[in-house]
Amino acid sequence: MKTRVESTSNSLSAKLVRYGHEKFTGRLDLKVSTAQQWSLYLSYGRLVWASGSVHPTRRWRRQIIYHCPEINPNRIALKKIESGSCWDYHLIVLLARKRMINPQQTVLVIQGTVTEILFDILQSLTLVSAEQSVIELSNGSVSSNTIETKVKKPDNFLLNAQLGVRPSMQGILPQTWMLEVEPTINQAQQVWQQWSEMDLEDVSPDLAPVLLQKSALEQQTSVATYKNLVSLINGKRTLRDIAALLKRDVLLLKRSLKPYINKQLIELVEVPDLIAPNSEDIPGKAGTSNQKAQTQKSQTQKSQNKSDQALIACIDDHPQTCKIMKEVIQSAGYRFLGIQDSIKALPLLLKHKPDLIFLDLVMPIVNGYEMCAQIRRVSVFANTPVIILTAKDGIVDRVRARIVGATDFLNKPIDHQKVVATVRKYHTTSPSQTDPVEKAESPEVKQESGGGGNQELS
Questions:
Q1: Torsion of CA 103, 106, 107, 110, to 10 degrees
Q2: For the purposes of burial, counting CB atoms within 10 Å of the CB of 394, is it exposed (0-12), middle (13-18) or buried (19 or more)?
């Protein structure tokens, strides 16, 4: 049976490669059995985008979190979208055109999305019976408006090709940002083969782990491992979601959880998708009472979200540095505390208790080394990340900073992406940023601009 399934998978791959060689432009609609269906978009034989599977919103958020750390997916909403467009691709186009993400990030998001969907297709082909998987493509030319496969059993497998269909009515990204069909399929097949070799053919990475026996788990793991498992596994995040948060391969994550699953300490369950940030989720104008209720709800959510956001402090005597850091931190969705007087720094830190502290190394009266040592002597800040901001990068400075308790270094001049990536590296539990689940209930919030104003993408 496995040989037959592999033959079916190879046959499908060969047909998709053929569309690439023949420079096909349009949409390929693929349906396996009666439940699963996907769409692959091509332009002159190159892969533009893919859609489908059970969690399109989670997938889009994962790719943004993983590849675009400076973008907060919780603060993005679509002002409008044309019928027939893929909202996820449409958003990527807008983010790229507004230069909120760079070309390399855009390609990585496209590649990650397409590879996930190809993986899901390969898994679905494996799970259907060998007889259901056998297909026969018609000999029709790809130049016809609609091409449909003939199947041995009705509704087992369908492949339709629609010429000229794009994932967004606003247009598509440059040809050089698109993917070659054959290498992309080969990559997905390698990932699926590794997954299959671990006997995980029937385990979807879209399942969410749930802790069944916390007490038993605590007894069988170290304190650090137990703490990590409890903080990450809440029954709402899928394996793919958790892997994105940890910047880790989902296969390695599943392998690390497998012993606990085998002991029935952890169970994998299905979870629903999140709400897509499209125009339907933005409060409408269809009625005063409805609008008032939506406004009140939005205000309540914003108030709650503000209190949930992590507070990031920056101690630097240069006003321009604090100004830049404020723009960067707030545009990423965090609260900001700027401190320019080193004498007042410790009292202000004790009052506000920030979640992470950026600290300038060279300051008058109290320098960064002395300030870091003072911070570490306060028990409440014993585990608070302290990131040294410095134009120096010598080994002596690093060693001295480590001795007084610094967590990491960040070189000046300030780099937007590095600042946000550093915050998320050391504050991964912030619900306003890195969690693809906890803040999904506020899709009407827009991506903030650098000046603190809200911006809708249209």
A1: -160
A2: exposed
What's the rounded Cα separation, in Å, for the pair 119 and 397?
47
Q: For residue 142, what is the DSSP state?
A: T
Q: Residues 121, 127: contact at Cβ < 8 Å?
A: no
**Residue 338, Ramachandran bin (φ over 0: left; ψ between -120 and 50: alpha; else beta):** beta
Interior/surface letters 239-259, b for 16+ CB within 10 angstroms, e for the rest: bbbbbbbeeeebbebbeebee
Structure tokens at 195: 């997954």
User: Residue 419: how many CA atoms within 13 Å on its side-chain side?
Assistant: 27
Is the pTM higher than 0.70? The answer reads no
Alpha carbons 335 and 435: distance in angstroms, whole number = 17
Q: Give 32's strand partners.
A: 36, 157
> 81-90: per-residue pLDDT in tens?
777 789 999 9
**Tokens matching residue 285:** 């104008």
- How distant is the alpha carbon of residue 291 from its chain centre? 31
Torsion of CA 366, 368, 373, 375, to 10 degrees: 90
Let me know: does 402 contact 373? Beta carbons within 8 Å: no
- Angstrom distance (rounded) from CA 54 to CA 271: 10
Do residues 315 and 358 make contact, with C-beta atoms less than 8 angstroms apart? yes
Cβ-Cβ contacts under 8 Å for 242 (sequence gap 6 or more): 209, 232, 233, 253
Q: CA-CA distance, 305 to 296, in Å (whole number)? A: 14
SS3 270: coil
> What tens digit of pLDDT does each residue of 199-255 get?
888 899 999 999 988 888 888 888 888 888 888 888 889 999 999 988 889 999 999
Measured between alpha carbons, how far is residue 219 from residues 148, 213, 226, 235 in Å? Answer: 57, 10, 9, 21
359 torsion bin: left (phi>0), alpha (psi -120 to 50), beta (else)? beta
Written as one string, the DSSP assignment of 296-310 is: HHHHHHHHHHHHHSP
Helices (H), 128-206: 130-133, 181-197
Rounded Cα–Cα distance for residues 144 and 148 (Å): 10
